[in-house]
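Predict structure. Chain length: 307.
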Amino acid sequence: MMERYELYCEKEDGGKRIDGFLSLTLEDISRNRIQRLISEGNILVNGKAVSKSFKLKSGDIVTVVIPEAKEAEISAEDIPLDIIYEDSDVIVINKSQGMVVHPAPGHYSGTVVNALMYHCRGELSGINGVNRPGIVHRIDRDTSGVIVAAKNDFAHNALAAQLAEHSMTRIYKGIVYNNFKEEEGTVDANLGRSPKDRKKMAVLKTGGRKAVTHYRVLENLGKYTYAEFKLETGRTHQIRVHMSYIGHPLLGDVVYGPKKCPYSLKGQTLHAGVLGFIHPRSGEYVEFSAPLPSYFQDLINRLGGKQ
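Prediction complete.
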């Protein structure tokens, strides 16, 4: 099914290149794919095709056309999945740390998508493109925990609408550097691509997209803190960037925190513990949880935690 929607260029977006504007606005679509859509004539400004270097003006209407997904060329792989729940519309899994959600350069096998294609045998939504059948949202490779995939376009559209409305319940747990002065708080700071490093996200004083993270201290672990994070929005690397911004980077996060970690970790200590949403078919609220992985719990115990 082809997707088509329009974006309005606000005053602060005037002067931005079209590909840069879309890479900030369409977080789930890579910049390379955006540039391909532009070159294929699927991105229009005020009804006319443009080049990737086209600069926007305030008031421009950007039309985005995403062609119907073609049959995926990626392979189904018999990879074990930790399935929390499954029915004819959705499948909820507990993703292990180190597993990539969808194929991308350098990771074309061993992903959640490869595993889902084998397990679901053709019953996955095709809305999100050939490399991401069924994928409604994702979590980082080194973040473990609950994610949901859609088995059909009906379910995908319903879940995507809840994501857009920020109505899903998404609660994470993590270990951060330093102790908080308060037991709970909120970080409300816009996020976008870092102007210094396009591979990283950053808090932006102007522009970017609204991002809100609520945090709560669970336990102090010496110079570290075990905390809970509830997402009001779901931007790329949101918790990692927000915590680094306020002086509490996640333990093990060498991208947004110290380059050297005092423990042998494979990435940030972040776990998607709870995911809740309105079930697309029944209309009832459902909520799923995943326990901390053993390495995470062992680290808490090592740091003197009582959890």
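Summary: The CA atoms of residues 178 and 223 lie 5 Å apart.
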